[in-house]
Amino acid sequence: MNHEHVHDESHEGHADAQPGGLASERRPGELAFTIVLVAFSGFLLWEAYGISGFEALSGPGAIPMATTFVMLVSAVILLFKAARLKLTADETFMVDITPPLVLVLAAFLVVYGLLLKPLGFLPTSALFLVASIKILARRSWGFTITVGLGSLLLIYLIFRIVFSVLIPAGIIPEAEIIQFFRNLFAGGA
Amino acid sequence: MDAFLAFFTIFTHLELLLLVGLGTFAGVYVGAIPGLSVTMAVSILISFTFSWDVLPAISLMIGIYMGGVYGGSRTAILLNIPGAPSAIATALDGYPMAQRGEAGEAIGTTTVMSFFGGLIGIGVLALLAPFVSDFALKFQPRDYMLLAVLGILLVGSLSSGSLIKGIFAGAFGIAIGAVGMDPLTFTERFTFDIPLMRGGINFIAVMIGMFGVSEALMQLHHVNKDAVRQQINRIVPSFGTIKKYLPLSLQTSSLGVIIGALPGTGGDIAALMAYDHAKRVTKNPERPFGEGAMEGLVAPETANNAAVGGAFIPMMTLGIPGDAVTAIMIGALFIHGLNPGPMLMIEKPDMFWFIVGALVCANFFMLLFGLTGIKLFTKIVEMPRAVLIPLILLLSIVGAYAVNNSITDVYWMLGFGVIGYMMRHYGYPLGPVILGVILSRLLDDNWRRAIISEREDLGRFFHGIFTSPLSLVLFMAVVLIFVSQTPLWTKFRKKESS
Description:
The complex is a heterodimer of chains A (189) and B (498). Chain A has helices at 30-52, 62-84, 93-97, 100-119, 121-137, 141-162, 174-188, and strands spanning 25-26, 86-87. With 189 residues, chain A is mainly α. Chain A has 2 domains: 9-97, no CATH class; 100-188, no CATH class. In chain A, α1 packs antiparallel against α2. Chain A is flat and about 70 Å long. Chain B has one domain. Helices cover 73% and strands 1% of the residues of chain B. Chain B has helices at 9-12, 14-32, 38-49, 54-79, 88-99, 103-136, 141-158, 163-178, 203-219, 239-261, 267-281, 295-318, 324-335, 342-347, 349-370, 374-381, 385-404, 407-425, 431-453, 458-467, 469-483, 487-497; strands spanning 180-181, 188-189. The radius of gyration of chain B is 22 Å and the shape is globular. Classes of the chains: A mainly alpha (189), B mainly alpha (498). The interface between A and B is large, with 78 and 84 residues.
């Protein structure tokens, strides 16, 4: 246990007043990230040029070209800076940047997005909450299901009933159920 | 004068009063729970309240904003984890105080001082904003453009991070804001011939992704961290303590209002600058800074709450956000058909006075909730992250979906969540991205107006800048930000301080 890796929170950037990252060393993946930024900015600049070219200073492409140019220049400067720094020896990409939990939860989110339309909000969210709480808390199934479904019910009541947010119904006819209860109360009053 | 009566609207309408109270209560806890930030809460909330009337929606958001800026201090003191970005400096001396068994005193003083700072901020807003908006009528399009650029740059230059990363983030935001049909010429911009992109990228999806999803993913690094319980004694501070720190709190409140009023910079930067200020001016603290100095607690807490009132000044008078939260509120006002800026102050001054009233009300609620409910508080804050993180993610998804009932927005949100997560890891500030998105349209419109009025001539454009005192000041401020980053300037500063 003594050799357990210590994750330094100060690299995470809690606020804009103190953004994360390392100033004197390069974090794992930073070089690749900066290269992606350079390529992305270059591509956007090319796209921006395609909007109206150098036709007029007041053209629709003027500000897009100016901003993407600024993006490209700053990304290139950052690339040179990052390339000159030494890679930190204290961190690895799979532990400090994208640990397995982050990848798993990100995958869950993608699956959530795919299932939301066909299954509907309630079943998808129930699956998502139970699965992620189980993986994160590593407690019994009883705890996981009670907490997961309980909080889902609370969220549903608050947002569906109080805020009247529309959500994909999917396989559960929840609008009909709500209407049934409304009629019940309206009839009883 | 009639408009001023709107100040009392909040106090005479029970429903609105309750919403501000509810918002402040929620804000204190949102601010206190690490992983939930005000920016996140307000950006998720905007999607849920957009079908409401404007007054209730604004009441709730103002409550959350005021409560949230304060709430972070409690976790900072009790757990050494700043619950919100604006409480980073509070932990430096607050936690050592708690370790000495003075948590109650620390919380009590923090609350009263936050209240005090908040009132000063609101006072300055009420007195100054009408003048600023009169003055703002004289602003030329190029002045708006320069002000927007200045706001985006300021975050990067006043923070401890890299200005270049701030510039990249800001430019990225402006580019995101430009996606879709150009409103003047109906030319497609960055749409890649995909029909769905013509309507642009929903800024709420960008905000929820950047502040909600990225934070939740970041919190996964600390799922198993246990909270440390602290003993809490008497919480209401003595009059003597308050009186003693009043002069310092006046200074740091003023600093807070100014930082808040600068476009782009808000409570988090104000708090850190106020802490530095307190360190400089306090000659003989009872305890050294970092070991439980009361001054180190008073300074950031007055400043960050004073910055709230300050941040509303450019938002209400110029339509330029004072910080990330006011950037989101501008979005909320847009959704409700209001266009913040000098014209809003002239056409709907009652809206301004209503907001001032709501802020005052939220400030009193903050004092009330700050001095009570400590038992409930410790329970809520100890909510395990293993449950909290999935809930934040779920709320983010519901929020992004609710805006347009569109799955596409959910995908945008997830995408920006991942981008925001990576940007944070590598030290890119996220505030400038949101400012860029919100200010993109204003920047674009005003640039085109300015250059057309100068007959597309850059020489005339710069001649205009150099012959108008206001434009010149703004232009010099932008130039100064760049000069302050050059090696020459750093050398000069070093020489001066030695």
